[in-house]
Every structure is written in structure tokens, then in C-alpha cells.
């Protein structure tokens, strides 16, 4: 396999787990405002994103000519009541999907990683691009989690 940092891809779970470690249920579900996401909703969104990129990768590998799907992230988060339930279950789902995808990624040749499809923006993207984009996306949301935690510190006390 060439050009994929599988370790960085897999490490996203550990980074998420560390970001939420020690937070109370109240802290993970606290929202800075009604229209913003809680820490738990951010993690739930990343599970949703994992599901979507799983489909996109497999669709590209299958040689689809259809445009790769977008998804309405806010509607997915609110529609599935993401702030209910337990953060541990959400992290477990993220980890399971991540591991399953890593098994596929580890089997791909350089040629397969270079296969392309057209994303929802009309841009040509490769399997490799999709994987890199996912890892960067998680990093973006880790920053969001830290910002929410800092705001929660002022609203709820020590975080």
C-alpha cells in the first residue's frame, strides 16, 4: 500500500477517546447554544461520516459512475437523537467501523487507492483522497470538541 498513513487513520479513535476521557455525562451532552453540537453530537457525527466514507470508498472501488453521496450532517445528528444514549456506545461504533475500514484499506494496491469517483461537489477524488480527507476531518472536529469543552468549563465548572 502506498501513500496512506494507516496509523494516523487508526489513531483517530484513540484521539477521540482521549478528548472525551473523564467527562461526565452532563459535560458530553452540554451544548454551547441550541443550534450547536455537544461533544457527544460531534462524536456521533464522526460515526455518521465513517459510514458515509465507507460507502464512498466501496462505491469507487466498484467502479461507480454515479456521483458520490453527500449527507445532511445536521439532520442526521438531530434526526437520530445523537445527544441521547451513551458516549461509550458511540465511540465503540466509531472504533468498529474504523477497524473494518482499515482492513479493507490495508488490502488495497496503489492502483486501487488511485481509483476515482466524483464527489457531491463535482470534484474528482481518489480513494486515497477520501481516506486523507477523513483523517483531516476528524482533526477538525477534535478542535471543535476542545472548544466546546472550554466553553463548558465556564458554564458548568471544571472540565
Automatic annotation (TrEMBL):
Pfam hit, one: DinB_2
Residue ranges of the TM segments: none
Gene3D superfamilies assigned to the protein according to its UniProt record, in alphabetical order: dinb family like domain
SUPFAM superfamilies for this protein: DinB/YfiT-like putative metalloenzymes
InterPro entries: DinB-like (IPR024775), DinB/YfiT-like (IPR034660)
Domain DinB-like: 11-145
Name by which UniProt lists this protein: DinB-like domain-containing protein
The organism of origin for this protein: Paenibacillus azoreducens
Organism ancestry: Bacteria, Bacillati, Bacillota, Bacilli, Bacillales
